[in-house]
Amino acid sequence: xxxxxxxxxxxxxxxxxxxxxxxxxxxxxxxxxxxxxxxxxxxxxxxxxxxxxxxxxxxxxxxxxxxxxxxxxxxxxxxxxxxxxxxxxxxxxxxxxxxxxxxxxxxxxxxxxxxxxxxxxxxxxxxxxxxxxxxxxxxxxxxxxxxxxxxxxxxxxxxxxxxxxxxxxxxxxxxxxxxxxxxxxxxxxxxxxxxxxxxxxxxxxxxxxxxxxxxxxxxxxxxxxxxxxxxxxxxxxxxxxxxxxxxxxxxxxxxxxxxxxxxxxxxxxxxxxxxxxxxxxxxxxxxxxxxxxxxxxxxxxxxxxxxxxxxxxxxxxxxxxxxxxxxxxxxxxxxxxxxxxxxxxxxxxxxx
Length: 352
Known about the structure:
This protein is 39% helix and 15% strand. It is built from eleven helices and 16 strands. The protein has helices at residues 32-40, 47-63, 70-85, 92-107, 113-142, 169-178, 195-207, 219-224, 250-259, 291-294, 335-340; strands at 5-7, 12-15, 26-29, 151-154, 184-188, 211-214, 230-233, 237-239, 244-247, 264-267, 273-274, 295-296, 299-300, 313-316, 323-325, 330-331. Helix 2 (47-63) runs parallel beside helix 4 (92-107) and helix 2 runs antiparallel to helix 5. By secondary structure, it is α/β, with parallel strands linked by helices. It folds into two domains: 5-135, Up-down Bundle (Four Helix Bundle (Hemerythrin (Met), subunit A)), CATH 1.20.120.420; 143-345, Translation initiation factor eif-2b, domain 2 (Rossmann fold), CATH 3.40.50. The radius of gyration is 20 Å and the shape is globular. The strands form four sheets. A seven-stranded mixed beta sheet has the order 6-5-4-7-10-15-16. The protein has a four-stranded mixed beta sheet with strand order 11-8-9-14, covered by helices on one side.
């Protein structure tokens, strides 16, 4: 299994996704600012993965705190948590994981600093293992929606690289393939950072799953020609009413899928659902550097001085989403009701 992140007592080892597929290289982070920078620069990316990285980063940062009195320790942990929350604003998994780590500290009471550090490490490991288990369950629920011989269109990368392992949208594809369903995959290249071309293509080649890379502007024509049976994507934040923030370009796919009467599925763990936010209009959308659009692998492809708009994500309204596939079950509209019934499970461990 692809292992995008792993914690040891001394460091956090991160597979550098900025270099894939040309180079397989690992970053060895020995301080929490290095982990935060890896998140900020998308060396590790994907909503569940950056949540895991932040949790591990908080535990690593705690190890570097020399204070023995709990009051000072709490202050320094709070700063570390705020530093991680400032890295990327859209994916709610990051704040979910950081808040879960903070809760460990708040629940510790008069426990010694040494014991709190141990508990933080254990909680970070638990978040990783729960995510992998959640992905497997998402795959198990989602593959039941897939029939043998179908072609699935996916966008960006919602695979093992974007999670603790196995993947959400790609987890469904993997589970269908493992169940013996002879499927095919179409993957958008996903401009401007080409996560589909660089990462999803690489993952599916590793698994031997038949797949075809298309440019982003080919998806509608593929649907018109009946080359797509369903669309399955991941998510970076889902509101309580089912609006979905995901990689830029997702909204256009949902509109085209609706026009062609093709099911549009979103695969995500409950940690991606923001139950405190009702409307997708309120989701903070990260605006990234213009160089991602004006340059390709360091080479300028647009004239100097051109104005650039580069939102990393867009929002797909709930009425375009056929179903949301979680680790607990597949939920259908109205999402305010169906997601609401799962709210109490968001902070609980996965039921086996």
